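quick one before i forget lol
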Amino acid sequence: MIALFFIILFAGTLTAGSIFYQQGVRSPLEAELARLPGVETAAVEPAGGWRTIAPTALRIRLERDADLEQLYPLIEDKIRAAVGHRTVPLVLEDGRTPALTAALGKMKFAMEEALATGAFRRMEEELHAIGEGQGLDEVRVGIDRRFLYVTLRQGDGYLHHVVPRDEEGTLGPIVSVSGTGLAPEKTLGEEVSSDG
């Protein structure tokens, strides 16, 4: 009888925690993120089972004209206010095409080299040259103390890519994916499973 009481108490605690998470964290965070200029949609993906009070990932669909250099720090601030210093993977969805993904792949060497050497001006020139060679309509590169931001556009397609300059203090892994349901690509220095 006592064991049954503790099982019911445990299940009730989990249910209450899940309801609190939904009402107190998940819904407000999704609404806050979706209100940011440049964010199309935002979704908190909770863990399954008994861990439902902690998010496993945040999915944010970015608009075509999102200004990553202005937007990403705002996204980080909203997430930090909601989850504190927990590590939470961030999935940035965009409208990438195979051509844009291929162009980004050609640019990664220059980005890695700049992150290692600090030669960001040369990297910017190389990225623009690669973009021109790939027939891209636009290559936008931004940088701040913590991140490198790249936006590529070609026709109706657009790709947004954020690379941490230093993993220290980031929310967690940043994964850029197609908003069309294609498997995520590898981000710089990180393996990403195709079931994400």
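fyi The chain has one domain: 2-178.
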